[in-house]
């Protein structure tokens, strides 16, 4: 039975409490187990050819990248649920803590998209049809998530409890 989560309602709840954690935890398993680090590495840039097995350093770097994906998914999943469960009757506090997390995630989205875009070969940057699912996940889907975070901050489709509301301090007469 879904619990009331006023600071993260409807589509935002479905996206950030369920879909995003799954979509960020899944790449960790792809890199660690199957199809594995070499596949993951070769999919990062859609050039159609693989360059063979990876050296130990590259494999370790891919596994650590998988760990970062796992961390992002776990933070979204566990922290957002903890906010909902610990502060069920305090939507202002829910929103303040969610806002801090959303800010960090939006900054990470921006950095990730920028690094992925710059890392693409020049001939692929504007050839969206040539991108593989990994590239679309790293760029297209991450841009979508960042836009949804910005929509959340703007209060689109939800009631605002903290962000965008006049603070009680600014309403006091000095």
From TrEMBL:
KW Transmembrane helix (keyword) present: yes
Keywords: Membrane, Transmembrane, Transmembrane helix
Upper classification of the organism: Eukaryota, Fungi, Dikarya, Basidiomycota, Agaricomycotina
Record field: transmembrane: 12-34, 61-83, 95-119, 139-157
Species name: Hydnomerulius pinastri MD-312
Name this protein carries in UniProt: DUF7704 domain-containing protein
Domain DUF7704: 7-156
A Pfam family that the UniProt record links to this protein: DUF7704
Highest taxon, organism lineage: Eukaryota
InterPro entries according to UniProt: DUF7704
